[in-house]
């Protein structure tokens, strides 16, 4: 892996440059741990300094020359050092030499690893810092002894001194993208950020180690990491240098913490002794933090644990895990996580003998969406006699781990243990879950409906019917789904989990019908009830997210989408490899980015969803459709067509309820490919289907797509009983009285304004206020087209507004935007860009080998085509100009 481009640290970079270039030229020294990026940051900042304005010297101190006078600054001082002069004379000579070299320019002296400077160099740096025409920049390694003259730089208030913090999660993700020449999925980037603790050097070594195995893979252009890797020699050398030599007692402390973190301080002292624990803390190997009147111990760096765990002999690891389990059991397993931790230690150490304990822990892991651990615990419980309950849990977890084919035999193995309605209802529900969503069997709906009648107890029967209801919703049997769901919600005996699942069915149905407020009330209540249903039915969260995500996307509620993708469930799904959950959240994150006009971000998000959902077909068709939609808006017809084909290939009929999103994407793929008529025909057919299904909210979105394609006045098939055909605009106005929320009314207002340029600009502003920059830009583009025959001022206002809106978007390529900008010749484009950059006509003429009169003629033609009157307006208009 070669060197990568500098990314992130924008604030720090600006601050260093400002330290050298501001009026007071106050210097800056940055401290930081090894590998944190000090050297690269200093180098990038110095590179940005113009050599014609500043005399810039850079030097790197080294232990190799720390014993030589001026050894640390040998790279910047002349080689003709005078002989036989006093130390003070040498300092004067060095300062004068730098001034001569500067030739009157302000001096900038940048020293990397300044803690390794020899005494003479350190003294010279101090003298330079006192010079009014000089600035000292530098880096230090945290924890190292610093020469007194260097320390005096900030104690004497000559420079500022700050600690360089680790990379943020966002900067780490950007750096990973640079390292791997492609985006990394969110969960993998987060794991690597946490494991490296934001240290670029350690991050690089982690990526190299992961790349050497099959644990780092690329799918649909997105990199994913399983979390497993082998310790490469370079990585272990780095960690060994930090850990140092360990005695047996301190090693045992570190190993106990590595296998048990976070571990209570009192338990650690009980296990290893007080003195070794204190020694480990003094050496910076562990850190102690207070929480809820307790003290918990963790290793000082996450990678310490990886090194210690992988190097620990197997027999000692087994002994230590068994000991940890005994310690926590002896203390009473009072904390929330204790049961799960003890069960995992018992399982790993081969001392698990209680299937009930393993089963309870497996249920807890599943409720936290930790699929891998939940499956391990359930399988172990089944193996040692867990029976029906263990098989029931294991089969459910297998479905969400994309192992549905293995789940059915597990269920069949305990069919004979069904001895109550409670067990029968659970067995039927999990079998339906596996058969319908896991294996894609449409017949599972009829099977569960038939088998529900065999459950005598009405409460347990309601649980089965709640699954039948959501299956029917997903296969578009919406009337029966609604009837079943309402009967369950109204039933006084229905359990909480069944009632909440039925409410998710109703919330989804309300959302697609345009009853946005009612849908929101229901999902808010289901979320509030989560503590009551999550332990019994954790996968209900998926139904909740689908209902909630559908409502928010339909309503254009970007803040609401931001809230749910930042919710606890998103973190749990990513961390636990709950792919259906994290994949769907990636889809709605991409939908929000698309509506914001950030189509590149939308494409990235949808590609990430496609990669996460590659082995699970429930939402894969939706993910590829969103990928196709984003690519189409970017103007990438080839990618859009390929993504739509992938959507058709991976879509399952059991998720027919998702058809509006897929068919909308299909229309935009056609438009991107140049067949706008096909796109219009497809959208009109979709409107008719949505109207027949009663999906009023989806219908309003599709009608607005027709407005965006210039079809506001297009007649469409009218409802039965109407005497006159409706236009797209007329139907949108009608739906605005049916669909809740401001978006439907705003889309109807857009349709009604297509002939009024000023009103179109007002509508564009209204879309922009909601963050819907895609719609805002297209509406402003329509205003530009409408105002071409208007006065120069009106045209200029519209063009400038369009330019401002597109400045907040990616490179959108839609029919509305193409229509707003007539084509320029290549010469006109060259002239326009140079003029917008402030280049005078004579200089443009010289550069393009044309006469000044010809340049002026070109400019006048450009002004006329773009509807602008001067160069400042031209700059805005060019931002909206599509590529040719």
TrEMBL record:
Taxonomy, superkingdom: Bacteria
Organism of this sequence: Phytohabitans kaempferiae
Gene3D superfamilies according to UniProt: P-loop containing nucleotide triphosphate hydrolases, Winged helix-like DNA-binding domain superfamily/Winged helix DNA-binding domain
Name of the protein described by the UniProt record: LuxR C-terminal-related transcriptional regulator
CDD domains: LuxR_C_like
Signal peptide limits: none
UniProt-listed Pfam families: AAA_16, GerE
Keywords: ATP-binding, Nucleotide-binding
UniProt domain HTH luxR-type: residue ranges: 817-882
The keyword Transport is assigned to this record: no
